[in-house]
Amino acid sequence: MLAGVEEVVRYTYRLRPGATAEAALFGEWGRCRWLWNEAVHQYRTGRKPNFGRLSKLLTEARARSSWLRDGSQVVQQQTLRSYALALQHSFRVRGWGRPRPKRRKDVLPSLEYTTRGFSIRDRRLRLPGGVTIPVVWSRELPSAPTSVRVYQDTLGHWYASFVVRRNTTPAPDAEEAIGVDWGVTTTATTTDPAYDLPHLGHRKRCAAELAKLQRRMARRRRPRGVKPSNGYLRAKRQAAKVAKRAARQNTHNARVWAKKVVDDHATIAVEDFKPTFLARSRMARKAADAAIGAAKRELVDRGLRAGRRVVLVPPAFTTMTCSQCGTRAKHRLGLDIRVFRCDTCGYTACRDRNAARTILATAERDRAGADDVRHAITSFRDGALVRSEPEIPRLPAVGKR
């Protein structure tokens, strides 16, 4: 990794707003949510709600409504910009639906501020309208932030996520290569058993406690239209706390594992596995507990930041192909068959280990057109870290198992 190269990252800190500041944040979120829903209405009525048109409509609406003028124009413009980007992304990426209205009960507050809309004075976050919020500075910012996202989580805690630039830390020298195959029994099986990520089952250990709290919520639930009781809200908060604790444990384990893999390997071949279809199967609960998507995202992002060669390999036929001779089996292996045996060369290995070695062999052949390998290329442009992915025709989706 080249020293002195800058990268754009987020630094997140806990906020402790008072009652007045929290009421101001909720009021600002109400205005932004109304603008988002109005932009959705503009699209449904046949108009073209690009950012330029939405900005003109915002100016007209602020001139008519004193309620909108009481809020920050910066955060309102950022809301409309986010909607325009989400709409463009839905057209580019197949399978993404159009932006939907945001209901107050379904969406948590999230506000975006640029440099014109916030400042840091006396180690406090200052927002428009005289809102001052103490920040829990767990670490120092490496540079002046260019933007900040203020949001609330399911527990009611507020956070500030600052976008900053920092110098990259040179990665250790490495020459080894590794292949990664995703699974449910073992979250990540690699070509080297020392780098496997076992299924730790954090959500499973919390399942009994979570079920107890959910039953308590069901007993204390009131009819629709009636204000929920304090006991119901207390049980709901406790259930959210248990669920978030398990999610944080999965995130921490994925970060530690990804750092170990990236530090010791120059080439990382990752199975381009999409775990979404598992949510509609009998393995939905265990797949969610494995957190395959979070581990994969952490490994790819950390590898790109470190300047490693990261290759995404489609999962089609990786389990059916022999990693020694390259022969593909004529029939699919059932999930109950955990040992791969090649009828041509007699090679025998764990099916997941064989798949990991097949993924690595596919990446090392470097034949993107024939094997449909999508390379995630890391380059440096104007002193900044840039990621680009070439357009390569994809094969039809085929199930891995």
UniProtKB/TrEMBL annotation:
Record-annotated Cas12f1-like TNB domain positions: 305-359
Keywords, in A-Z order: DNA recombination, DNA-binding, Transposition
Signal peptide: none
Record-linked InterPro entries: Cas12f1-like_TNB (IPR010095), Transposase (IPR001959)
Superkingdom in the source lineage: Bacteria
Family: In the C-terminal section; belongs to the transposase 35 family.
Protein's name according to its UniProt entry: Transposase
